[in-house]
């Protein structure tokens, strides 16, 4: 049964993408054909007002482009297969980056000595934080969840694009809802008002309701993902950590999330800010890879301060959750 559902989710993926693009572009079209001409009157505007109108137009084009760019990248970027080689070194690497990759390789060797495991379903080596996606039928690095709206898994290499896509969507939906409110009132008053726009009245009403619904739904999902980013967890890890936290509490111990370096540092690590990219690069609609190859992850100081047996217990608990994925519908 689970397999049938997985197959259905996989097959319906492309249709979901087409629907998402149509709905987003419908709202964009409603904005440029109705809301923008309604809000801004070019012919009576002063020079200053005209500059403001042009700036507004540029801002909205930027938002629409960012939505499409990050959506495209979330769909097209492989989330990270465990069979890919993560040890590529580029000729343009700086000495710090080379040092970082060397540190990465050493970490990998150390980790592999301790946890040489393979996935029972796809028989590939299974690094820490990787999980098997039953829809894609492959293991994914730092797996978060499978998203039918991008017909892809959300994993190490595309999580950043996915979160930025949601962020731009939520901000744009709020902006659209605020400015399309008055045209919406006019659009539903069929008796007393004229409609001089090249866009059907009912469609504008539909676009506003859609923007509100999409904004609220994505807003909740987006807030959830920012919470996960700030606490250095994936969706899968959250449930496991929640359980482990309860267990530690009942034993009078303090639970330590080994990947948690504090909210600010977690955010920087997620958006890959610091080493090569400055903070404002999150506003650039350009491809930016995540930090690291996604096979091994640095652990925080608090984790190393735990007793050796507790460190091992925690790692074993994480592995058990990974193995649970493999046991499903075998
Ligand atoms: Zn697998
Ligand atoms: Zn998947």
Give a written overview of the molecule.
One of its GO terms (cellular component) is membrane. The protein is mainly α and 330 residues long. The chain has one domain (2-92, 98-327). Helices cover 59% and strands 4% of the residues. It has 10 helices and 4 strands; from the N terminus they run αααββββααααααα. It has helices at residues 2-39, 47-76, 95-114, 159-179, 181-188, 201-230, 235-250, 263-270, 301-305, 308-327, and strands at residues 131-133, 138-140, 145-147, 152-154. A two-stranded antiparallel ribbon has the order 1-2. It has a two-stranded antiparallel ribbon with strand order 3-4. A hairpin with a 4-residue loop joins strand 1 and strand 2 (138-140). Helix 1 packs across helix 6 (201-230). The radius of gyration is 24 Å and the shape is elongated. It starts with a helix and ends with a helix. It binds zinc ion (2 copies). One zinc ion is lined by residues 119, 121-122, 124, 132, 138-139. One zinc ion (ZN) binds at residues 133, 135-136, 146, 153.
Record the SSE blueprint:
Blueprint: H1 2-39, H2 47-76, H3 95-114, E1 131-133, E2 138-140, E3 145-147, E4 152-154, H4 159-179, H5 181-188, H6 201-230, H7 235-250, H8 263-270, H9 301-305, H10 308-327
Antiparallel strand pairs: 1-2, 3-4
Helix pairs in contact: 1-6, 2-4, 4-6, 5-6
One zinc ion binds next to strand 2.
Enzyme class: transferase
Domain Palmitoyltransferase DHHC: 116-241
InterPro entries: Palmitoyltrfase_DHHC, PFA4/ZDH16/20/ERF2-like
């Amino acid at each position: 049964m689970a397999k049938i559902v997985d197959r259905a989710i996989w097959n319906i993926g492309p249709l979901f993408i087409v629907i998402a693009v149509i709905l987003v572009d419908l709202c964009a079209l409603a904005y440029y054909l109705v809301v923008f001409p309604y809000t801004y009157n070019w012919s009576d505007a002063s020079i200053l007002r005209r500059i403001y109108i042009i700036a507004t137009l540029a801002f909205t084009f930027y938002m629409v482009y960012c939505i499409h760019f990050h959506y495209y990248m979330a769909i097209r970027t492989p989330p990270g297969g465990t069979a890919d080689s993560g040890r590529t070194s580029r000729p343009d690497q700086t000495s710090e980056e080379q040092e970082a990759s060397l540190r990465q390789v050493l970490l990998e060797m150390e980790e592999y000595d301790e946890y040489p495991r393979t996935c029972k379903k796809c028989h590939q080596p299974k690094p820490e934080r990787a999980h098997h996606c039953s829809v894609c039928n492959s293991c994914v690095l730092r797996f978060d969840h499978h998203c039918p709206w991008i017909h892809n898994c959300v994993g190490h290499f595309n999580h950043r694009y996915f979160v930025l896509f949601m962020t731009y969507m939520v901000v744009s939906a709020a902006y659209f809802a605020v400015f399309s409110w008055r045209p919406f009132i006019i659009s539903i008053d069929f008796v007393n008002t004229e409609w001089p726009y090249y866009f059907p009245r009912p469609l504008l009403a539909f676009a506003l309701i859609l923007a509100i619904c999409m904004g609220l739904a994505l807003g909740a999902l987006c807030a959830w993902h920012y919470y996960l980013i700030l606490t250095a967890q994936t969706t899968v890890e959250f449930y496991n950590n929640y359980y482990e936290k309860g267990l530690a509490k009942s034993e009078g111990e303090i639970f330590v999330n080994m990947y948690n370096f504090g909210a600010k540092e977690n955010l920087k690590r997620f958006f890959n800010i610091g080493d090569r990219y400055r903070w404002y690069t999150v506003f650039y609609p350009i491809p930016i890879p995540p930090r690291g190859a996604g096979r091994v992850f640095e652990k925080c100081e608090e984790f190393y301060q735990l007793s050796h047996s507790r460190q091992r217990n925690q790692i074993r608990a994480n592995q058990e959750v990974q193995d649970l994925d493999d046991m499903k519908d075998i």
